[in-house]
Predict the 3D structure of the following.
Amino acid sequence: MKRGLSNLDNGGLSFTPLVVIELAKDTKEEAVSWLLKRVKDKQRDGGADLFVEQLPKDVWDSANENPNVFIVSASRERLLFGAEDVGLVKECEDGSMRGFTRANGHHFKDYKGDGDEFLSMAECQYIIKYGLDTLRAREETSIPGYPQVKLYPGKSILRRMQSKGILSQVFPLHDKEELKRLSHSWYGKLRLSYQPLDKIRLYFGEAIAIYFGFLEYFTFALLPMALIGIPYYLFAWEDYDKYVLFASFNLVWSTVILEVWKRSCAWLAYNWGTLIRKKDFEEPRPGFHGVLGLNPVTGREEPTYSSMKRQLRIYLVSVPFVLLCLYFSLYVMMIYFSLENWALNLHEEEQSFWTSLLLFVPSIIYAIVIEIMNRLYRYAAEFLTGWENHRLESAYQNHLILKVLVFNFLNCFASLFYIAFVLHDMKLLRQSLATLLITSQILNQIMESILPFWLQKRRNKMVQKKIGNITVDKELPWTEQVKLEVDMSTYLGTFDDYLELFLQFGYVSLFSCVYPLAAVLAVLNNVTEIYSDALKMCQVFKRPFSEPAANIGVWQLAFETMSVIAVITNCALIGMSPQVKSFFPDSETHLIMLIVAAEHVLLGFKFILAFVIPDIPKEVQLKLSKLEYESMEALKKKKIQEASEPLKSLLP
């Protein structure tokens, strides 16, 4: 297999360590023995058929450290069977992408007789995770040693142990050699070049690679706005009302970039095999609870929870709470405007350098308060969404994203809408937008660049203390590597990263016509973001399990919704400009009707454009159609062959 860890000194292990399981320090011995046996048992006996060994207890420096750390791996044969079970899509010799099967293994690129060098390390770790996730209770009624932790036939063992705090974490190990090569090509040197998306995908999986692909694409998509914005800013700085052309360009830009991204993403997903990969059957979340019932799809017993109860929790508790938070956000916004008026009056009474600086203080304070409120609300939203007791992780994520987006949108943009359409103060709008954008980017860089860099330095010192004279850059013994990675921070997914880009897209697409440098600041921030995110993934966090993904998911809908709001907002800003108003000096009603009509036409054009531009390029569609045709032909041949076999047995 393509696993750099095979080059390590495995310290007497008969297999390459790939995945780590950590149980709680006080886990009962009978529970540990039972779990290890189930992991080792053959699949026909209900096990996972994996290798597992406990990390030697003599490697721990003190009695306070947790000895219940176990290393998991698998044989090559088991991994190849697992690749077929998970529906892994690989490249064939003819360049097409097909679902892997052992029977047709010789048709696949880099496949040898024993499968060596065929699967990447990330794919091996994903297969092991799949094997662990499919460990299910059989005759057991409870976890051994924990009679209160009930089991029932078909229940996922690891999910049950995780929800009850017996299982602390399961994570894949880093491959230090491969990570060093990836780091060098990704962020090792400051240079203007494309990211190594294929290498990122091979190491971290498709979901993370698609995020970095979208970050890169969005940064390039901002360049036209930035290039137009710089001269516009330099030569029309004081002409706040001359933004009609820039707003018109905004209308087209915000629509086109999202449509082009869908096509680019389709190419990535096809080349990585996720566009044709079958979606895994989704199991209940670890935190899901309810009365024991029968799943009509799988026929297995599992918790059931009334949809009516969930809806009552959503509409009687969650919705009122979100509305209360939105009201509080608006209340804070009005306090901000009171501070703005106070600073402005003070400056008018005594104009000086210090009072000029004071004009920016309310906006800076408000921007910091916005960031704090966003983070506090995020914790509350996670608690509420968990309390709603959604059965599937996808439903949980969708409800969480909706809650967070609604609050963040109002919290970040309500003041800008109020200034633009209530106060009609374009000068204050430009100042507020600039302050909010710059302050939020500085805070994000502190949290995402400076803090991770400090954590890396701290980790390096910790490594040097633990292993003495060995430098951090040298290869560690695998036992030391496991100990260090157990204590590393856990990567929580791309949620916050997409949220940051969503808000940035809002700042640029909604109001950048009055502050043309918004796109320039966004480009500079994103270039730094690429390097800081790469540093975090490679040096700060545990390695996440590879997750298949064909697109950016529900975030695509979020960005498209923002682009619709951008069309309406920019049309309204155009209608408010003195340049347009001068054409309707006597009738404001006609102007409003014209702007509304233009907005409807542009929205219609937007949806027509989305319909005319195919989400999947024609070349990819042809390849998919060819693959579907060949699959149907192969199925026909198989049926004919099966039907002819009984006839052959009757012939003399």
Observations:
- The two ends are 48 Å apart (CA to CA).
